Amino acid sequence: MEYEEIIQRKKNITESPVHPLPEETVHRLVKEFTQCRMRSKQLYEEAKTCLTEGVQHNLSPTFPFPLAMDHGEGYKLYDVDGNEYIDYLMCGAPIILGHHFKPLDEKIAEHIRTKGPTTGLTSEYEILAAKQIKKMMPTIEKIRFVQSGSEAIMAALRIARVKTGHRKIIKIDGNYHGWGDQTVIGLHVPGTGMMMSAGIPPECLANTITVMPNDFQGLRKAFIDAEQQGKVAACLVEANGGEAGTHPVHPEWNRYVRELCDEYGSLMIMDEVITGFRLAKGGAQEYYNVKPDLVTLGKILMHGYPSCGAVAGRSDVLEVLAGGEGSAAGSHAFVAGTMAANALSTMACYYALKYVDEYNASEKAAAYAEKLTSKLNSLFETRPDLPFFAYNQRSIIIYDTTAFFSVDVRRPDALMQVMNRMKIAKTYQLAILNKGVMTLAGSRMYTCMQHDEYALEKTLEAWEYLLSLIPKK
Fold first, then answer.
1. Against a cut of 0.90, is the pTM above it?
2. 102-358: which CATH topology?
């Protein structure tokens, strides 16, 4: 589906009335869900006594209560009550080979049995992992491992300032770049400013400039205005658009960002925490044919194993890094982490990416996503009274039913619209979940190379069931 059509269809949904499930239907769905998941409910009640909010995972479906999982296998998840799910959450995107992928897990298990998890010193897997990343992303020259995608972003911003001598960072509204102080602004819904920035002093965001998605004129103006205020050190982008493509990028957007960065002596930072090795084997930079100066990586990098993140890019840019007692100080960017690049994580990185390459995982996952997206849109066409649609960027599927992420914040009732549309989307997600299909945030589905015809059939049955619950108008 082309960009212009996607944008217009999102607009059609946000400008149209929503289609809530009848109250009695929601009550029945909650009752059915609860009856089959009593152990999860019990664990949630216990978790509330010792964990914040009773749940630690911000991607978990939480209505009417979060599920507790037992294990994953291939494209399936199994909860503690024994219920089976076709998984499209995929741990928030990193699982592309499939859960509990035996060749990878056996390597890790053997390492733990024979050598333990880590030593706190260098291992050969740092080198092997770095070389594998460079093999798959040839534009990358040097890599620095960190412990999360959020850390990778924080490191990249610091590196950019040291390299350029400039202060300002341009961040695109609706893009998500972790929870560091300088990027928690304009989250989820473009134009919401500091709504999600509680606890962050305004001065932490004083050098962050926000620009609305695909605002070509606004982006140039941001660069021009910054010339008298410290200049732009870097422009930070989710290459496929905010919220992993929920706010898709204009076909020319990434190239335009590259041009402006070159024109104003700034660095282009491409956040590939989601897209790396998923949009293509060589990531978004290969898919969009745009070479960034810095790339932040995570997710698939360690395929679900912890301490997962890296900042990578041009050698001359990464050379400004300092870390450790023997490194230069003063004019260098300090980055550290006790567990960064530990042997277990870098071993997982090396073999995970090696298998992604050998098994052609990116292509297989994308082929399934293309098929599922087409089938979903055909199913939605059977209900012309509903404006639902889906589109995919390779193995990332975005589906819009209430389009709560796309509400125009300039509407006088914007906040009410977002909250109401999100609430309805959660009831839709519950209906699908009751039929054994796990999605992400009522808006996304990630595929892996193991999704097959059975998964397709069960997924379409779940969606067909949801449509049957929505009254015709």
1. yes
2. Aspartate Aminotransferase; domain 2 (3.40.640)
